[in-house]
Sequence to fold (1111 residues):
Amino acid sequence: MAGPPARGGLGESEARRGGSGGPMQDAENVAAPEAAEERAEPGPQQPAAEPPGEEPARPEGPGAPEAADGENEEAEAGPGPEAPAEPAVDGEEAAAGATPGPSPPPPEEPPAAAEAEDEAPGEQAPAEQAGAEQARDAAAEARSDGDGAGGEQGGPSEDAVVAENGDADEPSFSDPEDFVDDVSEEELLGDVLKDRPQEADGIDSVIVVDSVPQVGPDRLDKLRNVIHKIFSKFGKITNDFYPEEEGKTKGYIFLEYASPAHALDAVKNADGYKLDKQHTFRVNLFTDFDKYMTISDEWDIPEKQPFKDLGNLRYWLEEPECRDQYSVIFESGDRTSIFWNDVKDPVSIEERARWTETYVRWSPKGTYLATFHQRGIALWGGEKFKQIQRFSHQGVQLIDFSPCERYLVTFSPLMDTQDDPQAIIIWDILTGQKKRGFHCESSAHWPIFKWSHDGKFFARMTLDTLSIYETPSMGLLDKKSLKISGIKDFSWSPGGNIIAFWVPEDKDIPARVTLMQLPSRQEIRVRNLFNVVDCKLHWQKNGDYLCVKVDRTPKGTQGVVTNFEIFRMREKQVPVDVVEMKEPIIAFAWEPNGSKFAVLHGEAPRISVSFYHVKSNGKIELIKMFDKQQANTIFWSPQGQFVVLAGLRSMNGALAFVDTSDCTVMNIAEHYMASDVEWDPTGRYVVTSVSWWSHKVDNAYWLWTFQGRLLQKNNKDRFCQLLWRPRPPTLLSQDQIKQIRKDLKKYSKIFEQKDRLSQSKASKELVERRRTMMEDFRKYRKMAQELYMEQKNERLELRGGVDTDELDSNVDDWEEETIEFFVTEEIIPLGSQE
Amino acid sequence: MGHTGAVWCVDADWDTKHVLTGSADNSCRLWDCETGKQLALLKTNSAVRTCGFDFGGNIIMFSTDKQMGYQCFVSFFDLRDPSQIDSNEPYMKIPCNDTKITSAVWGPLGECIIAGHESGELNQYSAKSGEVLVNVKEHSRQINDIQLSRDMTMFVTASKDNTAKLFDSTTLEHQKTFRTERPVNSAALSPNYDHVVLGGGQEAMDVTTTSTRIGKFEARFFHLAVEEEFGRVKGHFGPINSVAFHPDGKSYSSGGEDGYVRIHYFDPQYFEFEFEA
Fold:
């Protein structure tokens, strides 16, 4: 039994790869007719072949796996144009053989077809008999015409038949013994025959199930029942076959469904079904036999893929003016543009219609732009934003990049099935290959998988469990998850492979925040907390500090008190200091590159912002508090020091630009109904925007300097989203950065010079543009007025000689009268009233 | 006596003897301006949207809405031929099957009319043959208003597509575009400066959901040549439906959905203002 074990060993995905990797084999099958016979061999070995009425010798054979492989586009693209073309042609020819085409069928075909017919049992038999009968009737008719040399059917063979029969004296309807029926049925009733069932009909609906319990006749009925129960979920089973040997079933069975779709469904969903401990079903399509049979035992060295030169994917960093790029989605998502940010006007780089179906995402270092499509994710990059990679994931909704840009995590609510986890898929970005699939019940807390800062690990939390996986194997770290009963939340340090997680109180055991080193799983700090309502973990961007915001209800008090537990990660044993606040907390944010943090607290309309500084001795100092703020969100500049406090949406888009080095408010402004604030990656500019997704009018994005000076108002029809293209971390060492800071004055002189130049150039350009516009307009007016003057007489004529060209054209005619009229009107009544 | 439905349009002839009004009561009426006496009543099948006297004041034109199964038509009557009025038989009736006329004016010298359509198209129809002389489509949405310059050589259109545009009256060549963030209901050209004033705002339908601040019910002044805005006048708390300059160019007025007509006199700076060019 060569068939079943070979098949059993292959998973579906491998099968697919087999399809894509072995185009050669496919091509061979089709090209050589002998191959068809070889393929037929497993059939006779399979007793199964008889009852379902399917004969493995079928000319279309190779076409079927192709069809089943339809999803796999690489299979078609891979092997070059000739190979797939051949099966198609052959298939067509085979079909043509059965139909009464004008071109005679290829010589080999008719015998093969005839053979097939002879062998074809079951339902086809009556049809063929009927066909034969018709043929005989036709022959009889021809005979009854006497020796009519020109039977309607014509053709030399007919003549021969008639001639032979014509000699007979009495009407005998039996053929003479040496009669050879050499009229092919295609010739006689091709139009009927073309509709006859093909033996391959329905073969796509047959599945083979391996690892079925081997039972004797006494338990066969029970087995049938069980099998029926499991497999009729996918569609109506029209036929089954349980091969037997020595009174026991052989352990594999054949099932036929009403349609190939059901069979596919069964393969997809029942493969790997665990019946009991000993029996896990392996389900395959019957038509896949060929594919697996022809997989060579020898390992073929995969063909070397030609290197695709994508150009410099980081070209945008070499821009001489150090400008940044951003993406803009507008027209309610129909159009997506990429711009260079420029102080004067944005410079368009690329604009495409329907580039994405929902929104876009930049990868964390800015190399790729991801677009969303019903069928999956596409990545774009390089100077011309060419497509770099595609990831096929039906109905994808959410994605996440690993910080190292090696892996992409995609989520789709559509694809998951019990045995084939596909809700979340992790992909290798460079190769485009799927690394692993995961189940996922809810995407509510995206990202489900949180990455360590270097992309070496990723972790996910489920009930009482923290599962940490490692790359590139995508397997569980140390092959087991961590049991942490009650775990509520966790977070990776952005500065090292440390995980922080917290567990709420459980009866007498206090709530607990734990810092754990990985991969050693060593707990480096545990802090117990009491009367905890909720905790939130906030890492400073470098991982220097962790702030755990703890909402507590201390005994003997009413209401919630918030503690900010500040962990100093870089010091021995991780000392912790606490800031307590009695007011409700609206927002908290660390200064990205520094030791300050900002807190928005209070209740509208009495909202205050407080800035704290964590000193090197651990003391936490309140630097400044501003009250009466209109803000609900804190946006630190990526470089630190500067911060925008924004009252988004319901707070009408109030903006405050604060310099925290001396805590001065640099500017108070407003972008009415603003819904988003986005700092550029260098901290030079801020964009505020009103997205169509949250507000339907005045959709626009405004560009500000970090000090809050408004530079541009960019109105875009149904503007949706602006995202700055991130920059990879700087390659400069700390010393080099220090040196640059020291020499800042030297640089600033150069920049100021440049700015002045471009500014005067800009105003010059503006004036120049206006001048030409004025000039053009003047020319146009002159022309129009000349025409107007030419028509003067016509106008006069139309108005009975009265000149109405000027408001005072007729002054000469009735000047005095008018003036007197006005004077008397206005003065006399006044005088009389007095 | 008088109209029994909303009056959509009014026009006076050049010497202000007659006034023509069109109404949603399916009639167009001619009045004696001085006495207010109704001189003619022309019944129509649907509301009269636009009306006007030609340059000489002898021919009147009005257009009717596509409504209640009736087509949009432009009808022309020659007032010098009383039989046309008596029999309510225009000497010419142009059907506009595709898209209805939302605003129309007479072209210079009364040779043609210029009509703005619901689709944003502009058509120049001959007043003699009725044929389309020029067709342009520069606006993407309904044209709410057309106003000629004082010398009638050019006109400005106000459109729901948030822009107003300047065209040449003879060729219908597009000259300039003035952009705003709101639908423009009306636009008027200054008689003595290269200025245009635009009025509009959030559509009345949507006003309930937005504050006056978001409605932007402001009159906005643009320079004709450079297309740049140089002034704004606030005051209305509903969309502005119509704007007009005083014939001497020293003041302008605006009528709003809020029920107010505001008359504004320009500051001295207005007359001194010039763009740096």
Observations:
- The domain at 144-276 of chain B is CATH 2.130.10.10 (Methylamine Dehydrogenase; Chain H).
